[in-house]
């Protein structure tokens, strides 16, 4: 049993505000909830919770579940307890993954549930302005086809290759033409009319893994994003570690020549002039041949794993993570890759982390972008709840 | 101007307790302080602060400064404001650095000011029990010669080579004989009769650098402890990053053969059977010759820096720190080492951190051990303040 916390004293509007925000947070964490549930979770008295919930319903942040939804068999004694849900449709967020070959967008509600997804394939040679136009187009399609008014967008999260500074400007990029120096967050924020947060693609994939993947329980991990291009990221103390200048995880530079050579043999060039899937097919073929025991294919896979493991080992020796997660397109070849990586890392490291394949799939980056946007939406939500309830409190 | 916070309501003893601990914290952070200073800093009313200070003086945690200490020239108008100090002598902590060749102890007051220092040189071949006996002897000498009763020791911090788990047990050690599996914190805690915290030596040197060295303003750094043996440590988000199993910073394993070869040429073997300073003299000679332009000596220094930089670069690429700090005995050769390290790291890393020599000196590990002990003492101090004031409150 938890003690009943006394409501904060102070001006009535401030009191209502603090209590309402506490109830809103409790409701977001777990819905549906009865007034008793919310009283237990917030430590507030039942009458206080009741009046806070009334405020939230009136402002559109919460809704009462219809009574029939509460009839789950069994004998009914008296009136059933009213149950409330957080209204996940009180706002929306957008996640975007800007790659060399495609731009992927996911519109999601405030619970992170996807409402609409749209993908546009692009020419890797596209310049920055043209690529940003595609990004805007993908966002518009998501909103239009999801039937959501742009004004209900509370935040957007964006994943991009390269190093992104705290302000959301690209400081280094070798993959996308004209991308260096681009104030990506500022330009997209102007287009979307809401806060836009930008981060490196591998960082967002790691965030997604911690949100919905194999790392939900892990406080620290090294994440390897291995697809046509390769990136790495770190989660430390439960948070993505970006580094002083956003350059954490750029381990590929440790031995770039060896790295490129092995990468290209298995994955083809990092960017190609064509937008077809020829490289991808070559990779699939090598993986299939290796699985069938073909010695040339196995040698490519062996060499690739040795170099990838060398870089993963450098990161592992540095931060001693709980686990290493292999994500990106090559995660589907985990049967070939994981044992080889584990063997190399066990040989080098004094304390070996577990090595696991991502369970998030190829949409990891865009999923992480949705998660990033939700964090910004949470801020905005509390901000809006504060201002609307304060305005109401001072008027009444 | 800060708003006056209302004192917490609740039972009188709980109220006094919360307020006294708040005032004690404010006084620890900055002494001497007047009642007005403390009221401003805690947000408590002046009468509340006054009664909290009375409690603290009575319990021995605070003292009033003698009036004459307040007369610093100028015209005196009325009675001078009474000023209070945290009584740094209300308890003591011990820092210990257990190395292959020496055990160093520092007894310090609760402000971290050294009271007595004692060092005993030891044979590197000493087994664990004999080495622990030396540690006990050093601790006893510090207490005896500092004139401090053992019962006033509130905590001890201990630095040791090797990997130390969360419980203070050595899991890996290649330097000290019989050290693996040793429950070091438990055994020393039994001897000292106070909480004992143990950490890896490089971790503690990094902690010292952040406390009193070149990194007081840095939230993230890679620390290289380069003496007869080499260790590395990380500070991230302002705290030492130990890793999941305490093995963060074990980067020397990345390329151990090359590492050992270069290390030995400059520094001699990691452990020697003798306890004299022959190796140290050889190192000094090489450094002196290199400074004089001797090409053989310069080549040893060049090779050493290239390998050290390769390992520092792997850590830098992984976490993107604000700075890299070179500590340990070789920090005194910063004129030779820093430019070479910077050149290598600039070439490899996409965003180069500043590279600085430690300003803490060769006592970095023991200083970090003192800092670690102070953290434990803070906990104990608040604990004791709580129990003594609660006991008093419930009795009165």
From TrEMBL, chains A, B:
GO terms for biological process: regulation of DNA-templated transcription. The keyword Acyltransferase does not apply. GO terms for molecular function: DNA binding; kinase activity. InterPro entries: ATPase_NBD (IPR043129), ROK (IPR000600), Tscrpt_reg_IclR_N (IPR005471), WH-like_DNA-bd_sf (IPR036388), WH_DNA-bd_sf (IPR036390). It comes from the Bacteria. The keyword Transcription does not apply. Keywords: Kinase, Transferase. Residues 19-63 form the HTH iclR-type domain. Belongs to the ROK (NagC/XylR) family. This is Sugar kinase of the NBD/HSP70 family, may containing an N-terminal HTH domain.
């Amino acid at each position: 049993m938890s003690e009943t916390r006394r409501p904060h004293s102070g001006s009535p509007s401030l009191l209502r505000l603090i209590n309402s925000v506490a109830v809103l947070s409790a409701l977001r964490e777990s819905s549906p909830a009865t007034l008793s549930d919310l009283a237990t979770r917030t430590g507030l008295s039942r009458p206080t919770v009741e009046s806070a919930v009334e405020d939230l319903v009136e402002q559109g942040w919460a809704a009462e579940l219809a009574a029939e939804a509460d009839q789950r068999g069994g004998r009914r004694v008296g009136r059933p307890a009213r149950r409330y849900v957080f209204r996940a449709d009180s706002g929306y967020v957008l996640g975007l993954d800007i790659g060399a070959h495609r731009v992927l967008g996911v519109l999601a509600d405030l619970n992170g549930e996807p409402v609409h997804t749209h993908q546009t394939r692009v020419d890797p040679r596209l310049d920055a302005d043209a690529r940003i136009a595609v990004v805007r187009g993908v966002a518009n399609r998501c909103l239009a086809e999801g039937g959501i008014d742009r004004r209900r967008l509370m935040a957007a999260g964006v994943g991009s290759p390269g190093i992104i500074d705290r302000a959301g400007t690209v400081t280094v990029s070798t993959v996308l033409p004209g991308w260096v120096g681009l104030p990506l967050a500022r330009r997209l924020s102007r287009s979307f009319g809401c806060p836009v947060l930008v981060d490196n693609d591998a960082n967002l994939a790691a965030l997604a893994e911690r949100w919905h993947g194999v790392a939900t329980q892990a406080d620290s991990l090294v994440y390897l994003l291995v697809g046509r291009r390769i990136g790495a990221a770190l989660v430390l103390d439960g948070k993505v570690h970006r580094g002083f200048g956003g350059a954490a995880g750029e381990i590929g530079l440790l031995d770039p020549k060896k790295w490129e050579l092995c990468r290209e043999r298995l994955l083809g060039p990092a960017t190609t002039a064509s937008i077809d899937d020829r490289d991808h097919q070559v990779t699939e073929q090598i993986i299939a041949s290796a699985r069938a025991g073909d010695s040339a294919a196995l040698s490519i896979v062996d060499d690739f794993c040795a170099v990838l493991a060398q870089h993963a080992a450098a990161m592992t020796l540095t931060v001693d993570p709980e686990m290493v997660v292999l994500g990106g397109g090559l995660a589907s070849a985990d049967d070939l890759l994981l044992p080889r990586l584990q063997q190399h890392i066990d040989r080098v490291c004094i304390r070996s982390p577990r090595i696991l394949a991502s369970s998030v799939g190829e949409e990891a980056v865009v999923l992480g972008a949705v998660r990033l946007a939700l964090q910004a939406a949470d801020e905005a939500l509390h901000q809006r709840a504060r201002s609307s309830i304060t305005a109401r409190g001072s008027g009444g």
